[in-house]
Inverse folding.
């Protein structure tokens, strides 16, 4: 039941919509649909939603969004977000444009082949949408420090890699803090909107760390990567994929004597392709192409432009909901299937309270004399963590960094000092650790620990965040 105050607020909001000048109201075709969401009240709005042109202006000025990935889904996301009123955007992608991208990544042209995806995508959207500012970053997501990610209100993911999603998920969750009752502090929640496509299928999901399940909570949703027996690759190949994996997993090491293979190096990929062609000709197997070689080696799944457009639209709408409060967000996982007709379904998954990434953290008790070096060694031995090559920061200060060499040299002396002293001699604190997962050294993991020191009186309830 509405109180008199509620009714008055609704009437005032409706009057505000009526008073908007014609040029800024629904008569403006460019902002008509956006205005229907932002300039009038509704029954599904968030608790802090205040309709009016001021809200639309605030989104333009203050709602900074990072788009991770500038491929098929990333291009659509940049376009949709720019047309949805977001003017402060940044995009990060480490890839360059290839000819095979042009059939679905609509922002790119033939003359763009070889150029960084992030830079070209940003340029094209800014050319078509006046007033939007998009800053591109042509680099790996791991190359950016925590301060870079902290500046964004929302992170939108347009990735095709489980490992990349896991890394960004861990970064966003590292900002999350809990109060003394293990409730997430609202001001520390870094929302994420994740989209993914696979042919005619796709998903869109909302991740509010500490509230909804994070990526790690539902990692089981992603099927394991297909593995081929080495005996089949070496002796009885039957498909083009077998020939490609033979060149990638066996022939490369035989010829290059332990030199690491870089799937993002075009010369390395060309070498694997040529060797796979030779292997296929030897066994009379058709179908080896450079595009298929990339797909097998990098586990790339074929994409369809229409699916990207549909999933991007869902992700852009959820981003707008989070930024404005104009409606409740998705609860919390949407699936799309366009193989036979059209089928869409929303599933509400439950957060894993014991999650090592978004949960309160694993309890670890240390002696106050435990050095930083010993602490890093314990991360390797801990049964739930299995982290190696860890770097540690505390409240923005680098305690020890594995890379670059300059930082490693500057922080090396801290390894012999007690962690208790480096953390400011507090009795307990929350620590985030990042390093290579022992089970898969190609994957970087971020894990959360609750560190307490033996024999130290609990004089304060301060929390400590250390990012590794």
């Amino acid at each position: 039941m509405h109180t008199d105050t509620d009714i008055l607020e609704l009437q005032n909001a409706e009057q505000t919509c009526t008073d908007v000048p014609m040029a800024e109201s629904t008569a403006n075709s460019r902002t008509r649909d956006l205005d229907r969401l932002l300039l009038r009240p509704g029954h599904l709005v968030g608790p802090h939603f205040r309709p009016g042109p001021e809200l639309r202006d605030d989104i333009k000025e203050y709602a900074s969004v990072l788009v991770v990935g500038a491929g098929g889904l990333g291009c659509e996301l940049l376009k949709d977000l720019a047309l949805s009123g977001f003017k402060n955007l940044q995009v990060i992608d480490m890839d360059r444009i290839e000819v095979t991208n042009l059939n679905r990544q609509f922002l790119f042209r033939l003359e763009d082949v070889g150029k960084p995806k992030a830079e070209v995508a940003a340029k094209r959207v800014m050319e078509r949408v006046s007033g939007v500012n998009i800053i591109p970053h042509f680099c790996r997501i791991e190359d950016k420090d925590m301060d870079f990610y902290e500046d964004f209100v929302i992170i939108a993911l347009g990735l095709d890699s489980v490992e990349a999603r896991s890394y960004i998920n861990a970064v966003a969750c590292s900002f999350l803090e809990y109060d003394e009752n293990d409730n997430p502090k609202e001001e520390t929640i870094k929302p994420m909107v994740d989209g993914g496509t696979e042919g005619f299928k796709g998903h869109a999901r909302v991740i509010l760390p500490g509230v909804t399940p994070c990526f790690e909570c539902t990692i089981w949703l992603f099927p394991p990567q297909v593995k081929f027996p080495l005996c089949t690759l070496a002796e009885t190949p039957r498909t083009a994929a077998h020939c490609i994996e033979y060149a990638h997993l066996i022939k490369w090491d035989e010829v290059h004597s332990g030199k690491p293979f870089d799937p993002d190096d075009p010369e390395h990929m060309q070498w694997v392709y040529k060797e796979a062609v030779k292997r296929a000709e030897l066994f009379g197997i058709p179908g080896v192409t450079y595009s298929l070689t990339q797909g097998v080696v990098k586990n790339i799944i074929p994409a369809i432009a229409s699916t990207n457009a549909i999933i991007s639209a869902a992700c852009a709408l959820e981003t707008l909901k989070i930024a404005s409060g104009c409606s409740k967000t998705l609860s919390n996982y949407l699936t799309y299937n366009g193989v036979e007709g059209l089928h869409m379904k929303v599933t509400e998954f439950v957060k894993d309270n014991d999650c090592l990434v978004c949960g309160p953290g694993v309890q670890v008790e240390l002696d106050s004399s435990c050095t930083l070096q010993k602490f890093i060694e314990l991360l390797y031995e801990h049964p739930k963590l299995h982290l190696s090559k860890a770097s540690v920061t505390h409240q923005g200060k680098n305690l020890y960094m594995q890379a670059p060499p300059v930082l490693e040299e500057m922080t090396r002396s801290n390894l012999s000092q007690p962690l208790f002293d480096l953390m400011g001699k507090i009795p307990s604190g929350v620590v985030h650790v990042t390093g290579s997962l022992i089970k898969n050294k190609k994957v970087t993991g971020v894990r959360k620990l609750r560190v307490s020191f033996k024999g130290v009186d609990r004089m304060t309830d301060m929390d400590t965040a250390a990012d590794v």
Observations:
- The chain has a mean pLDDT of 83.
- The chain has four domains: 4-58, 63-223+303-347, 230-297, 362-435+444-454.
